[in-house]
Amino acid sequence: MTKLIEIKGVSHSYKTAAGPLPVLKDLSLSIAEGDFCAVVGPSGCGKSTLTRLIAGLMFPDSGEVLLHGEQVKSPRKSVGMAFQNPVLLEWRTILQNVILPLEIVAPRMPKEQKEERARALLAMVGLQGFEGKRPSELSGGMRQRASLCRSLVHKPDILILDEPFGALDAFTREDLWQLMHQLRIDEPFTALLITHDLRESVYLADQVVVLSGRPATTQFVLDIDVPGPRPIDMLYSMQAVEWLAQLRNQIEIAQGRGGEKDMTA
Ligand SMILES: Nc1ncnc2c1ncn2[C@@H]1O[C@H](COP(=O)(O)OP(=O)(O)OP(=O)(O)O)[C@@H](O)[C@H]1O
């Protein structure tokens, strides 16, 4: 399959008052078109920095970030982003919030067409009938559904999800995980998910990348070869439990705690 994103030997430091802070070091990973990649790693290791490099909001000190084989040299309009805090605009209705990226990326698209596209997405995530509401009239889970619609409305090349489910209660989170699998069928996309939740990574991703402690490099890659949509009880299978144990072990190594355990013992 074609590689949509290739990150090749990327290193990056932030300038701080105390001197340069190396955050990424010789990091490489690639994501094929249509794949769902989850990135996990110790807190502060550089996961969000990686998303900013892919979105073209920052550029690496060395190495390359390629999108469709072309080096990312400027902010990309073709990226959709969803964060832990959905940041919906209260002075706009839910429909108007979802339309927002189209106003930037496709300003000439007729208003009716923009609305039709946004309404179709809102219906897909179960928000039909809420188009005219304000964000504050929706629950946290509903706001996050609307935020997902907004990040997909302009058919982005890559959907970057930076802990979008982290602030939700466990049941709502599982609902949204299942929704992501359904959305992949109805509205195929390529995704990079940043998460601290190993279960989330195993349930959602085709590939889980574990980053080392800062400065982060690719420490471990796990392929989750289970077709979607996945039933939630997939997480209770022996295979999933083994994968979770493997990932947990890798995170401990990344945190500098413990050594490699023999997961087959
Ligand atoms: N603009 C900046 N200037 C200086 N240092 C920064 C800047 N942005 C991030 N950092 C530092 O770089 C490191 C990596 O930050 P980043 O947000 O990428 O990590 P993260 O893995 O996403 O963290 P978390 O898991 O806690 O969300 C952190 O130590 C952070 O304090």
TrEMBL record:
GO-annotated molecular function: ATP binding; ATP hydrolysis activity
Occurrences of domain ABC transporter (ranges): 5-238
Lineage: Bacteria, Pseudomonadati, Pseudomonadota, Alphaproteobacteria, Hyphomicrobiales
Keywords of this entry: ATP-binding, Nucleotide-binding, Transport
Entries under InterPro entries matching the protein: AAA+_ATPase (IPR003593), ABC_transporter-like_ATP-bd (IPR003439), ABC_transporter-like_CS (IPR017871), ABC_transporter_ATP-bind (IPR050166), P-loop_NTPase (IPR027417)
Name listed for the protein in its UniProt record: ABC transporter ATPase
Family note: Belongs to the ABC transporter superfamily.
